[in-house]
Fold each of these.
Amino acid sequence: MTSGSRARRAPRRDLVRAAVLEVLQAIAPELDTTRLDADRPLREQVDLDSIDWLNVLLRLRDRLQVPIPDSDYGRLTSLNAIVDYLGAPSRHRRSATGDKATGADPLATRIHRLPGNVEVAVRPARPEDLPQEAEFFRHLSAESRYKRFMAAIGELPEKKLRALASADASRQIALVATAREGADEIEVGIASYAVAPDARSCEMAIVLDDGWHHSGLAGVMMADLIDVARHAGLERMDGYVLASNQEMIRFARQLGFTTRHDPDDPRTVLIERSL
């Protein structure tokens, strides 16, 4: 590489380095970034579990608009490794969307490999999914249903289930995550949005099967939902979270959402982010 080409790459690398440090600081506010060893694995220096780490990479992918295939996550261990990878010209990275998708359609099925080598498929809900979705909601714990709907409910009305199966991303969409359980495909998560009357913003919601909490699934589903909303031309994503649900509030902040108390209801927090 010539000195001229190195000089041209320097601003990009500086931008990437600043972005990485900012994302790390947002997820680990107590971190002193000036004390990081750029060549030492970050997880030896920052108190991040596997799911926090996955959220770091998802947020960088979203912020810098750089594809990061699941298969490359294991290479991004140190600050310098991340900067080298994300700062390189796109031709030096694998041409992928971060996950395998069938074509360029944002509504195509995406296959994700989660920590622990667990594979899930994320795709739009379909009318034929109604029995499976009803079963999914029926088997959620009372606590999970309450956190999702902010009310004690047993089963979702059929009208609500049918609305989830809409595939018109300009009005509303539901993405379902499925995994193999023996010979069966089971539904393990639903992430959805409904477009606001201004046609510029949307309200999101996400719920996972209780056994899939802390699996990394919520992060990849939200990344997919944001991608679909962005392709639909939406400019902002909002959501309402119980103020007592600190885990969800922390997760939203990791994904770049700002948070503020709902002035109309002290029990809830409004989360917002630009698309």
Note: The beta strands are 100-101, 110-114, 118-124, 172-181, 184-195, 201-208, 236-242, 258-261, 268-274.
Amino acid sequence: MTRDVLDDRLIGALHVRALSRAGLHHDPAASHALVQAGTIAALMDGRYDGDLSLGELLTRGDLGIGTIQHLDGELVIIDGDAWVVHGDGTVAAVAPSTKTPFAVVCNFHPAREHELSGPIGFTALTAAIDSIAPPDEPVVAVRVDGDFRDLRLRSVHGQHPPYPPLREVVLHQSEWTVDHAHGSLVGFRFPDATSGIEVAGHHLHFLSDDRRIGGHVLDLIVTSAVARVDGAHDLSVEVPNGLTLGVPGALGDEIAAVEGTSAQHPH
């Protein structure tokens, strides 16, 4: 599957709507869509203060990823609970009152699943996800449960005003490796043309079953796991006051460099 195919499918297939915070709560279609707080372009620009709380966001989805107020770590939403992996690698439950400048969630109802027998590297994993993704869905929500080894994970430390842009923050990000862990990969595959609104390609976070290990996934090997996917056509984006939705397809190379996703786009 090529990126051009995904981008062509995006045209007329993915419905992106900018909503105010009030509109998000009263939008009757939001329960059937991916719901997002903020945009990746705003995050790139150092907008780390959100106006939507995790409690509000969790009324719209039970699976998702993102970050929390002040860019204080990597957010993982799984089974309706929110967890954050801080820059020192510690994992903590997130209070519903905690705000987020950037996060995306969905109500996860997997349409397809596939058993994975390893060893399978990250590139092969994303190819397997693409192979079972619904062919007519531009966006795919992903959950992979199983055993993993040689995980390379990362997170960032919380920031203080005046906020530096994200490209400067990641120069000082924390990275670590984990020999073995049992847990879940959670995330999404977005088409390239959504870059600027979202992170294009495969964007996955990890959380161990014992909730002691997690982070943004840079690399790993699957030992054995079950991959489940759920497609979507609609993306409702809550845009804070003073911001615009931005231009889809913008900042692609810069976002890929910051997110470490240059090798994670669908092929």
Note: Confidence is low (pLDDT under 50) at residues 1-12, 262-267.
Amino acid sequence: MTNVTKSPAPDAGGKAAIVELWNEHWSTERLTTTGIVESRFAQEAFRVLLDFVPESASNILEVGCGTGRLCALLAQARPQTSVIGADLSESSLAIANHVKADLGLQNLEFIKGDLFNLPYPDNTFDVVFGEGIIQHFRPGGQPAREDAVNEQIRVTRPGGRVVVGVVNWHCYPHTFYKWLLERRGMPYEYAYEQSFSRRELAALLRAHGLTDIEARAYYPAHGLIRFARYWRPLGKMGLMVDRIKARWFVDRFGFELTAAGTKP
């Protein structure tokens, strides 16, 4: 089994296909603001993200913000900080703006923006982050995940933080699930998606010149609980895994892996 799992979806890993996929996905979802910002996954992701965001940060950008859950939580936690979320999916931005209005967040803004061509000058933001985004683009593709990372770095000021979240290869239930789909010639619901090990993600950030790399993983039980719809015992197994709070275990087997680096 390799770290890269490819699906037979047409144009998988292409920007247009990804935008279309998420537009369709969010146009059919019926979500509440509470369900978005208080979901277990959002809360786990936010706790890790907040560890990488200096309290001194005055402006923060999220690329590929989706429904804006992390932007909203950041804007709530840091009311003196300007938070911007950028996405190309109009369906997700509609949900994100509804969340903003519901929570009355004056320091939060959402824009329709391309993570490969952000509408900001160099060295603009104290922190730029993207969660679950670069994993959908192929290395060396058109566009490539390397281009997305470079664009995040471009708009980050020197001394600022670049934060990247991806699916963790060592979350074995999820990795096995994608491998099994590939073996059976079945498409993965989110098209192309690469899982990363901690070493691979850190190497990617270092290759782009970032320093002081730190990494954390979170919510290992999610890899089981999300598939309980296929086989109910997986949900019970997930609840058992969820009781394991040891830091080494969570950082090794968490569903998602987040790494941060400093722009020199």
Note: Strands lie at 4-5, 59-63, 82-87, 108-112, 125-131, 156-167, 193-194, 211-218, 256-262.
Amino acid sequence: MPPTPTDHPIPALHPGAITDVAGIRVGHHTDSRRPTGCTVIRCEEGAVCGVDVRGAAPGTRETELLRPENTVAQVHAVLLAGGSAFGLDAAAGVMRWLEAHGHGYPVGPRVRVPIVPAAILFDLWVGDPSIRPDAEAGHAACAAAVDTPPAQGNVGAGAGATVGKAWGVARAMKGGIGTASLRVAGFSVGAIVAVNAYYDVVDPACGRPLAGVRSTDGSQLAGAMRLLLAGELPPRMMAGAATTIGVIATDARLDKAQATKVAQMAHDGLARCINPVHSSADGDALFALATGRAGPAPDLTLIGALAAEATMRAALNAVISATGLRTADGLWLPAAADL
């Protein structure tokens, strides 16, 4: 049986940020009208990109282009957004900013087409669902991108993120967005992850939940796996009502097939701290960017292992940094620190 959810210290924030990878900038736009927003990871000079989608209910843009056998090798930004499928509109604003600043794939003497893959998460139930990230939000996030550590918690794509919705939103908690990085053998790997999981986020050191499904009275964590193993099955919920999305970046030189492998290995980081993960209600997707500034990777497994570790750390930072939220209809969504 999984550990009983009892009082235990919340882990300290993991250090670093995806912006520790040279050439990577991050900008958030958080909508003041309701908890939602978007986050842009900008690599305007171009970066090789791969993607791996594991959740059964994804919402994505330009992922087919990233297949290793397809022609375009580099992207210029990646968008993470709330708003469910509506949030994909924000990518148009990112493209507009990049085009105006001369960034994109040259397709003629006067035309550059910015390549902007995107993934979204479902946060429409938190506040007015008619308010969601649009092209103006994407433009604002892209314009705000800087190479210093971005804010974490209830900002950008993590503004409306929640976790532990499997037994109903009344027993859910606040998720968020987090980032972390590592540097080993002369190579940097960073990650940024918006955590909106259907089930629990757990402390990998002991397996106990940090944020997720609460008890029926809402006073403590129940433990999703403990409930499942006891035969307490969740009610049927709409597919796509959750989703964890993120971006890994490295300064190693990779081709598209190698970047795709790094994105695949990075999902191991989610599996270490989200339990269960990749459910039928989640659209979990991770992108991997390689700027190549540090030269060819001596060992692809090293980069993939660092990607998994950075992803896990970023996901934990997302819930550790989150703050509790009261919805417009009075529902209280506590954060990890509140319990």
Note: The chain has one domain: 18-322.
